């Protein structure tokens, strides 16, 4: 009986030693150079942001891949206003993939005595005493008017109309684009209004015409020095 107990104890000891060896081997493996970060790949970011993203991610080449916390890295990256979304994926055995959705500038927004470069969600990307000339400008006081104006310009394509101006006049939005005065009306259906304007401009409307997009499905064009109204 004593011999059987001894054998049983020895078997348990051997099992424990084997399990401890396996656990030790696994720990060594996960923290060895074989499963360490050798490459940090950044996708979707503009070239000037790529190295900044690698640096601000806090991921050090050579650190164990298992020690990288994707959620924490993502939270750190989206603190950068130029980054709208970030997704971090561990790609075993030696690579981290960082996929970025950049926040693109849409317009210069008037802010009292200065200007803010903003994305479509009104997040400030940069500030200056004067607006740049490469993007449209937006003058609006109410938050809903700001977001509506930005939605309109984002859909319109800000780089296509760098001289465009959108402003709030009491409860309505107006714009000056391509030599036309445009009544946008209340801050609703802005994407549809932008698409309607694209279609109208593609028809070669005479410069100086006033365009009403209050009802984007029924735009109206008032020709300069004429009483007639054209409904495309």
Number of domains: 2
In DSSP terms, counting alpha (H) and pi (I) runs of 4 or more, how many helices?
5
Helix/strand-derived category reads alpha/beta
The proportion of strand residues reads 25-35%
H/E topology pattern: HEHHEEEEEEHEEEHEEE
For this entry, give a set of tags.
232 residues, Rossmann fold, 10-stranded mixed sheet, 28% strand, alpha/beta, 31% helix, Ubiquitin-like (UB roll), 2 domains, 3-stranded mixed sheet, 5 helices
Structural description of this entry:
With 232 residues, the protein is an alpha/beta fold. It has 2 domains: 70 residues, Ubiquitin-like (UB roll), CATH 3.10.20.310; 124 residues, Rossmann fold (3-Layer(aba) Sandwich), CATH 3.40.50. The chain is built from 5 helices and 13 strands. It has a 10-stranded mixed β-sheet with strand order 6-5-4-7-8-9-10-11-12-13, with helices on one face. Strand 5 and strand 6 form a beta hairpin. The longest helix is centred in the N-terminal third of the chain and has 29 residues.
């Amino acid at each position: 009986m004593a011999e059987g107990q001894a054998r049983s104890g020895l078997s348990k000891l051997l099992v424990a030693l084997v399990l401890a060896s396996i656990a030790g081997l696994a720990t060594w493996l996960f923290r060895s150079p074989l499963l360490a970060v050798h490459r940090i790949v950044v996708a979707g970011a503009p070239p000037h942001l790529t190295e900044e993203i690698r640096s601000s991610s806090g991921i050090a080449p050579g650190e164990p891949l298992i020690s990288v916390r994707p959620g924490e890295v993502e939270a750190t990256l989206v603190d950068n206003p130029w980054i709208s979304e970030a997704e971090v994926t561990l790609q075993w055995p030696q690579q981290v993939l960082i996929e970025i959705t950049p926040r693109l500038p849409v317009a210069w927004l008037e802010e009292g005595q200065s200007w803010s470069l903003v994305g479509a969600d009104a997040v400030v990307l940069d500030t200056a005493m004067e607006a740049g000339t490469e993007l449209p400008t937006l003058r609006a006081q109410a938050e809903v008017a700001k977001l509506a104006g930005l939605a309109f310009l984002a859909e319109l394509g800000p780089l296509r109309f760098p001289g465009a101006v959108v402003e709030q006049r009491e409860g309505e939005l107006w714009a000056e684009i391509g030599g036309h005065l445009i009544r946008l009306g209340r801050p609703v259906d802005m994407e549809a209004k932008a698409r309607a304007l694209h279609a109208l401009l593609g028809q070669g409307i005479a410069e100086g015409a006033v365009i009403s997009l209050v009802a984007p499905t029924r735009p109206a064009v008032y020709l300069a020095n004429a009483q007639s109204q054209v409904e495309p």
